[in-house]
Specification:
single chain, about 375 residues, mainly beta, Neuraminidase, four-stranded antiparallel sheet, about 45% strand, globular
Length: about 375
């Protein structure tokens, strides 16, 4: 009898092992290439990702916002989200000219900021950042940085009007990464610069020349400028039509360029008709293909999420390419077209979603990975 018990136990173990192996993600050998050119690492990825199976899933676990609900739970033009270490959610509502704060269960806590031109008041708030000392930094489009406590008490304001900031990110250590207008060797363009908390220039990371074009001609499908922070001290930039992501260490150390083979996505007749209708009467420059990248975001573990123009067959989602901290192409995942991922933190994705009627919600999804870090 004991012998049969032992045999059945061994069989159960083997079955369990077999089942576990069947559930493990299917991994292919990475066929990319890494080159070193001084302090720059160039990572060239093939078209296919490292993992081909379903290794990434999202599960919704929080939704804030209800049509016709109370003002505290409605967004007039939600624009930016940050999340602190306790899970509190800070939503920059540009339409309401304030930041609305919710706890990790979605309960409204308080509101910071109000419209006006006095000390600590806002005119056109653009972004919000959490910095050391439990402080908040609001970047106002009218060129100033307003600093508050997390409880909403105004501390001070620093003008950026003479610096020509266009895009601003503030790290937890209160370093400022900004895109500014610049002229280098007689050519107009933009520079990506790093400043300290007192707005003293520390270094210039990048110069981006501007291609001359007729300003009377609209270019609705032109590639955009995308800038995010990853792992606090890495500025991730994309500004070219080709598939090229540049990663700069804001401390001035080694940098990285990530490239990937890809299929160009053709601009559809429906997209052209929609743009033509909106810009009726204007001259429009319409290329044949979309640029490679539609947007980027990054998580605290160094992964980079690249939004492409490739859609799923049902058309409801765009594909995102996910790269690890070494720049290797991990996996290709679909995320709803209506969702705009803003924060990846503690294995959760926070995003803004908008329905067909333009109503906005803040949502949180658990991020379920089946591959090792």
């Amino acid at each position: 009898m004991k012998r049969w018990i032992i045999l059945w136990s061994l069989a159960a173990v083997f079955l369990t092992i077999g089942w576990t192996r069947a559930e493990e993600p299917q991994r292919t050998a990475w066929r990319g290439k890494v080159e070193k050119k001084g302090s720059l690492t160039i990572v060239s990825n093939p078209k296919n990702p490292l993992y081909s199976s379903d290794v990434f899933r999202l599960k919704e676990d929080l939704s804030i916002g209800a049509a016709g609900g109370a003002k505290d739970y409605s967004f007039f033009r939600a624009w930016y989200i940050v999340v602190d270490d306790e899970g509190n959610i800070y939503v920059m509502d540009a339409g309401d000219t304030c930041v609305k704060i919710y706890d990790d269960h979605g309960k409204y806590l308080s509101c910071v900021g109000r419209k006006g031109q006095g000390p600590g008041e806002l005119q056109n708030p653009n972004s919000i950042h959490l910095i050391s000392g439990n402080r908040l930094v609001f970047e106002d489009f009218y060129r100033c940085l307003n600093i508050y406590t997390k409880e909403g008490q105004f501390i001070n304001s620093r003008s950026t009007a003479n610096l020509g900031f266009i895009d601003v990110l503030v790290t937890p250590e209160n370093r400022i990464v900004a895109r500014v207008n610049a002229v280098t060797s007689g050519q107009n363009g933009k520079e990506l610069r790093v400043y300290d908390g007192q707005l003293k220039l520390l270094r210039t990371l990048l110069f981006m020349p501007e291609e001359p074009h007729d300003r009377q001609v609209a270019r609705p499908f032109a590639g955009g400028f995308h800038l995010v922070l990853s792992q606090v001290d890495r500025a991730v930039v994309c500004y070219k039509d080709d598939y090229e992501i540049e990663i700069y260490d804001i401390r001035g150390d080694s940098n990285m360029c990530v490239r990937k083979e890809y299929d160009r996505v053709k601009i559809t007749k429906e997209e052209i008709d929609e743009v033509t209708k909106k810009m009726r009467g204007r001259r429009i420059d319409i290329p044949t293909y979309h640029p490679a990248v539609q947007g980027i975001s990054g998580d605290e573990e160094g992964r980079i999420y690249v939004k492409t123009f490739e859609r799923t067959k049902d058309g409801v989602s765009f594909y995102y390419d996910v790269f690890d901290r070494e720049g290797r192409y991990l996996v290709k995942v679909p995320i709803l077209r209506s969702a705009a991922p803003q924060v990846w933190k503690n294995r959760e994705m926070y995003c803004l979603e908008q329905d067909e009627d333009g109503f906005q919600k803040v949502k949180r999804y658990s991020v379920l990975w089946q591959i090792p870090n």
